[in-house]
Amino acid sequence: MTAIWYENAGKAIQDKLKSYSDDAQTSAEEAQSTATTAKAVTDNFTTINGGLVMTTLIKMIRKIAGVDVETGGLSANIKNDSGYDNIILWGGGTYAQALANLAKIILRHDGSAKLGKMTIDVNGNITANDAVMNNITATGKIISNDSGNKIVMDPTKRAILLQNGNGEIIGTFYFFENAVELLIELAPSTPQYQKQSVRVYPNGITIAGDGGGGSPTLTMTKFRISLTSANGLEFSVNENYGSLDVNMKGLSTSAASLPSGRLWRDGTTLRIVP
Predict the structure, then answer these.
(1) Number of folded domains in the chain?
(2) What is the pTM of this model?
(3) Quick one: 147 and 237 in the same domain?
(4) pLDDT recorded at residue 184
């Protein structure tokens, strides 16, 4: 009970301190909004020449229940040493809320922007939370996240890469001739393990090792299952026009040292170790 009380008390203190910080930030943005608006009135001017209007700050106001409510605006202020806002357009909030990045729509002179839950930074990086996008064609490399395990779509390899937090490729999914190949390889930091590949063909699947020197290969098709190695050993089962063919190449020719239940070949006779 005491531990729970301390935990709840600590959370209450943290929430209260955060509210003080938020209030202070809001007050600062309100003050900047007021100061910049005042400068627009006292230090600048508006010129109307026919259809041309030149001005510094425009606020969109709508009267709701007899009260003037600010809903958006335009600003000519570019962020500089004087602390101007850098905002060219905002909507869905007040000027102060735009300064605090709380308005729904914010476009800035430096090219960054906020559209609802989506943000665009000055480098063109887009962050969209809970976004639903349909019928999109994307070019270039696509990376699922910045750090840790990630999925990389690499157009130069025409492949989907599985990359661990150390930057090592541990899995690859790509085209292979007229098939699709899934190459699974353990991290290079564990060379005692072999790479493993899975190739999916129109008529079958091949699972193979990439270690060399007799790595086994398992092939499965509609009519055949075979297990082979580079040194000539083979076990296969084929369906041959309604009959079943079994091939066991390299079967032991002596029961010596074989455990119980093992198959061995005695001339033309197949035997089982008792």
Answers:
(1) 2
(2) 0.49
(3) yes
(4) 62
